[in-house]
Amino acid sequence: MNSYISRVLEETKKKNANEPEYIQAVEEVLTSIEPVIEKHKEYEKLGILERMVEPERIITFRVSWVDDSGKVQVNRAFRVQYSSLIGPYKGGLRLHPTVNQSIMKFLGFEQIFKNALTGLPIGGGKGGSDFDPKGKSDREIMAFCQAFMTELQRHIGQDVDVPAGDIGTGAREIGYMFGQFKRIRNAYEGGVLTGKGLSYGGSLARTEATGFGLSYFMRELLKANNNQSFKGKTVTISGSGNVAIYACQKVKEMGAKVVAMSDSNGCVYDEKGIDLDLVKEIKEVKRGRIKDYLEKHRDAKYMERTSDDSPIWTIKTDIALPCATQNEVTLNSAKKLVENGVIAVGEGANMPCTKEATEYFLEKGVLVGPAKAANAGGVATSAIEMSQNSMRYYYSFDEVDKKLDCIMTNIFKSCQNSAKEYGYENNYVAGANIAAFQKLAEAMVAQGVV
Predict the structure, then answer these.
(1) Which among 268, 275, 283, 433 counts the fewest CB atoms within 10 Å?
(2) Is the CA virtual torsion 429, 19, 192, 448 positive or negative?
(3) Alpha-carbon distance 160 to 165, whole Å?
């Protein structure tokens, strides 16, 4: 390994010893950009890597709110404003009990590369809280979101930092947050949050964007390798939220048969093909569990999750689309997928494959669409929403969808070209890291030591 990369990686591990997710994300990027560092010896003198692995700012704050029984609840919240090199900080707000500083930093770090790949003028950030929306009433969620925004509003703005939704933060939560921001600021800054409802500045196709974008990226990846396609392929998709649902919709339109979807408790396997309308009803309307699928499709199978390895990855499939959460595909799962003949893996979630799983896929010749490229459709459409807010104008669904398709196609080409240029043929993980890193490094050099 290059001595500069090795030194920075070692220093990062020492400084962030209690942040495994963050270290994993940094290591994955740094180990794949070695040819770029070898070519640009001046980067060491300029401290490019040291600056890139250190967030510009981390904000941690308390959120106090009152539940329905009148009891005061306290949560911890974060906003990692990672990099403003190419635009205002941009990234989602995650509401989940697992949220901690390591996860926020890893997501923020991934976000700067993802956003750079879109070709749009947006920097990278991430935030959230260990608040769990599950089981809470609408009033309790509103109370939390208002208390959360009362503090966060000091640090954001449409030209400073533009948060969005993420796990646990959907249209309802964004609405409550935007309302509180507007009340405190006494101004209508439509571009300060994305993922807004259509009635007050949101963009058509934003809900579908990440899942659709993943499908467009994987379509290009398959096409570039022996002119393959989704047509006639069997697909398994982990998760059953927005990303999974709309990836399922789009790949079915492209001719694939999706046979399994999941949630945190387990997965359903329907050999005839997943009934997507039923999944939408269970998850988007009733907010139920995926197991409820069997009430209408008794011939389907439910496989309960009993370990870190999701049972969905034991199902024979041509293409796997992990769309649930980080590190959900372990080395054991990767081995099972390869054993069952998987040809491609498209990361719909953020870093859903462990480092060992990714390395195993690449070693076995499985095509991998890395998260920072493959799931960039959501943030790309958020940037389109920002531009619409600035123009006081709305694009039609088809207009947004066409722009998204074009952006995802260009992201794939960037990954492909960078991989070829530096001798990583068909390694789109390395290609994505190199393409994004080069853009960020050039901006960092141009802007001086700041």
Answers:
(1) 275
(2) negative
(3) 17
Asked whether residue 221 falls in the same domain as residue 144, the answer is no
Contacts of 210 (CB under 8 A, 6+ apart): 242, 243, 246, 247, 348, 375, 377, 378
The full length of the chain comes to 450
Residues 293 and 279: their CA atoms lie apart, in Å, by 7
Grade residue 326 by pLDDT with cuts at 50, 70 and 90. Answer: confident
Task: Tell me what pLDDT residue 287 has.
Answer: 85
Q: Supply the range of the domain harboring residue 285.
A: 209-369
- Find the radius of gyration of the CA atoms of the chain: 21
> Could you give the CA distance from residue 295 to residue 375 in angstroms, rounded to a whole number?
32
Buried residues in 424-448 as b, exposed as e (16+ CB within 10 A): bebbbbbbbbbbbbbbbbebbeeee
Number of domains making up the chain: 3
**Furthest C-alpha separation in the chain:** 64
Residue 272 among the catalytic residues:
no
Which among 126, 196, 250, 336 is annotated as catalytic? 126
Identify whether 409 is part of a domain.
no
Residue 18: CB partners within 8 Å, gap ≥ 6? 102
Summarize pLDDT for 297-314 with one digit per residue, the tens.
999 999 999 888 999 999
Instruction: Locate 11 and state its tokens.
Output: 């220093």
CA 60 to chain CA centroid, Å, is 22
Instruction: State whether 356 and 443 are in the same domain.
Output: no
